[in-house]
User: Fold IS110 family transposase from Paraherbaspirillum soli.
Amino acid sequence: MKITTIGIDLAKSVFQIHGVDSHGKAVLRKKLSRAKMLEFFIKLPPCLIGMEACGSAHYWARKLVEMGHTVKLMAPQFVKPYVKANKNDAADAEAICEAVSRPNMRFVAIKTEEQQAILSLHRVRQSFVKARTAQSNQIRGLLSEFGVILPRGMADIARRLPELLEKTNLPDSFRELLQRLYQHFKELDKQVEELDQKIQLWHRNSAISRQLAEIPGIGPITASALVASIGDASSFANGRQLAAWLGLVPKQHSSGGKALLLGISKRGDCYLRTLLIHGARAVIRRAEDKPGGTWLSKLLARRHKNVAAVALANKNARIVWALLTHNDRRFRADYVPAVADA
Assistant:
């Protein structure tokens, strides 16, 4: 009995594994506690191991790769069609074992500890930004109940609220509440600024991140997030696959030989897609003040700004793939493709 492929259904404490031999016959069905996971696999001959790309998957993948196993991660939505019966841990492990052996399966690149560390900074920063926005909206909404209207924007909260607390005739209890909310707002703003500095420091120490930041519409935040999330760009066959992974290509609903393209699919990482589109909007705002003739100005002349922003984000994603897969290349704003030149 030689196990060639194993599927692992990950959990916090109890893990279900399913193993098959070279003929696809099930030869192993077992539950393992977290403490015995490494002990079991270190005694096992090297084999192919499949897991869903979920919480702790990258950690276990790194550990198993160190033992000599070949580990492949898959998106959960690609594994679900292989579940044959009712959902349970054993059925999930069997489905993972079958899915990982499919020749056309799409896999997720295993992230390094450094990649996960910088991504953790981005995730925490994103949560602080959301909390700061929610806090400013709450302050603005509470003041409106007393007839005080503040314009939209973080700057007006920080600039006008201290003055309102001193001069406006507000009840003392409400004034104390506003002071408490304002202190919370300032603390959130401080946390965001400190995390920005940490990300900037990592960006300055990363050559490839600095290289991506040369692309118009991509700054240190976007560049560092792209480098940490994508990792090995060679796992994508071309730039369009990377753009599709980010959800920047049209959703297709075709049948009977008739092609129907809808809006963008919005699949993949929403955070990266948002950063790329917001960066594209900044480029578009500056492009409106420049003379025409460029690809972007021609696009803006015939399509809506939102469409142009997504198109530019898609283009930047493809440029990112080209730079990540060819380390000897650098971004050139005056570059003209050979086909267009001919």
Notes: The chain has a mean pLDDT of 90. The longest helix spans residues 172-204. The first strand starts at residue 5 and ends at 9. The chain has three domains: 5-100, 113-204, 216-341.
